[in-house]
Amino acid sequence: MVSGMLALLIATMGPGHGPEKAVERYKVDLTMQQDVDLSAMGQGVMSNKVTATMFLNVTMSDTTGGRLAHVVVDSIMLNAEGQMAMMFPPAMADSARGEFVHAYIVDGKMEGTPTLSAEGNSVLGLVTQGLNGMFPGVGPKAAGKAGWADTVTTNTVNENANLNSSQIVTWTRTGMDGDVLMLSGRGEGSVTGEQQGNQISGTVTNTVKAETVIGGPARSAEVTSNQEMTVLSAQLPEPIPVKVTNTLVLMRLP
Where are the beta strands (DSSP E) in 82-179? Predict the structure, then answer.
């Protein structure tokens, strides 16, 4: 499993694999909105939402085939509505302080499933969302190019779901500041999978504005993701439409 591989890599890091530079601090503002149309059940639209402001300390180090991002939570402030309030209670935000996420970075993006220091704390899942802006996928092929395209695939596996997505992301370089690339990107693709026995399929579109060195982490980023999905359940006569909108604003602090 990927998480086990990460744990092994961390445990076996020896001389020459130390931090490349001092800890960098980030502020991340994240909003996740989910609207579920329950007309098939004789109900209306159920909306769930969580907003979070996270302050994170990030250290990068080299490892075999890529880099490791060690992300420690300084503090998290959040507000949750609807069913999100049960998933993200305030006590979990408080207990997340000092916890960490380890992510394996290849070609400027996360590969595999990050390792969480507290697997039962769902708030750390919000931290992994922040890493999507910190490492938006700007790899070596960006060097010297005004524009390029990538195919990005992800697989999310946990005790409740197994989801797969595939996107084609088109990047345009809008400027440079030393070795920092100023970029805009747009991704379009699909998502399929299973969650709690229900079949899920749909489309996903992303827009990105980022200032980043090749390989990351980014200096700043703004990411918006829209997912239009349907959920098929054996208990219901019709599919359930689900719309998910995520917005993320990330800034490296002085």
Answer: 100-106, 109-110, 115-116, 147-157, 161-177
